[in-house]
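re the bet — no i am not wrong, look at it urself. input seq straight from the record:
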Amino acid sequence: MECILPVLLAGGVGSRLWPLSRKSYPKQFSEIFGDHSLFQQTALRLTSSEFIKFEPHLTLTHENFRFIVQDQLNSVGLQSGPILIEPQSKNTAPAVLAASLYAFKKNREAIVLIAPSDHLMPNTESFHKAINEGLESVKEGNIITFGVKPTRAEQGYGYLEVHSDQGKFPAKLKKFTEKPDQKTAEQMVKNKNFMWNAGIFLFKAVDMINAFKVFGKDLLEPVAASLEAGHDDLGFFRLDPDPWSRCDSISIDYQIMEKIKNLMVVPLLSSWSDLGGWDSVWEEMAPDKDGVSTSKNAHALDCNNTLLRSENTNQQIVGLGLNNIAAIAMPDAVLITHKDRAQEVKRVVEHLKEFEVDQAEVFPKEHRPWGWFESLTISHRFQVKKILVHPGAALSLQSHFHRSEHWIVVEGTAKVIIGKNEKLVAEGESVHIPLGTSHRLENPGKLPMVLIEVQTGSYLGEDDILRLEDRYKRP
């Protein structure tokens, strides 16, 4: 059985699902459906079965997400394979090329499966059968893309047209059309020879590299140089930023797939969604007879064709007499939009960024290598946070110029260093850290440790940190 290298693309922002998805914590890491994040579901989907044998995952992601990737893989029992850190987000073409070059260097016969990590695909067995169906064609030098039978005239997807005289698959691609206008999309949906492009690709690494030699020469040199000059760092591999900065930001669809002649299509017979907007989420939540989709703590009265979601278990959302509306409530932000305009949510993010609103990109819960913290309340002179520290993890040794802190342990036991003193702080106990005093917090236990932090001072920003030592090598 052929062994395939699964590549997880996990560096996107997903701004069309704001306010759930934000730059600091995008949609692939969120539990939109089920108990696992989309990233975890994708990783679990790309593990070996009776149909397919997979190598450990190769993941491409951003600096800010590297520890989230590692933690989410470990938490579902998967050992993380190589994790490549992209210095900047440059869309999918440079990422696919970097993965192909990396795989080819390890194995000149490597077969690669590229998978976005923010898609929903419940039927893993059907997906594995589709991959197996395309393997022989890949060995012959073709690149496989996976198609989905369209259910609506969607402008945000690419469309695959196969030759009408072909009754079996893989089928030769006649034409690739990326994001058509509405009229063209409607015509394509009526034609049985068209499918959505799922954005999942199967190929030999050497064939993808050869495609870039013809259609992506401008990317080949900087991506190869970035890989060559990259270096290992705390179990990750950092691509070098200087050559990477010379890469154009372009999708693999525009750069390669629309141009090559050896692109073949295999249909996905299972359900699929890229969850590219709240309209897609509404559809995947299985609307009732009135077209209403609600989360567990949402209520709809006399509503039609409406999505209501609350992403906080302590927050209720109620809709009365709504029609064709999507309303999503987060603890710090609420989106209300006409459902037909769900694809325009990026405009909301840009508007908030223009007015320097933190919620445009930053979550109230911020993830760190050691765990996470969540701001519970903030005022001019004080802030209250909830902090969770993973077992064996530690914050940096640090001090502050403008604030003092008071820690109350509410779960587990903390190992605390304040100045030259070290002590264990048990559940229900507290300590005070005076302004300017060096300090460190560590979890010596085997379970997560949780504490409440009360900050007081003239400035409470996250940049008021002087790191004296940090095991995660942050500046």
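see?? The CA atoms of residues 199 and 474 lie 34 Å apart. told u. also The chain has a mean pLDDT of 93. so pay up
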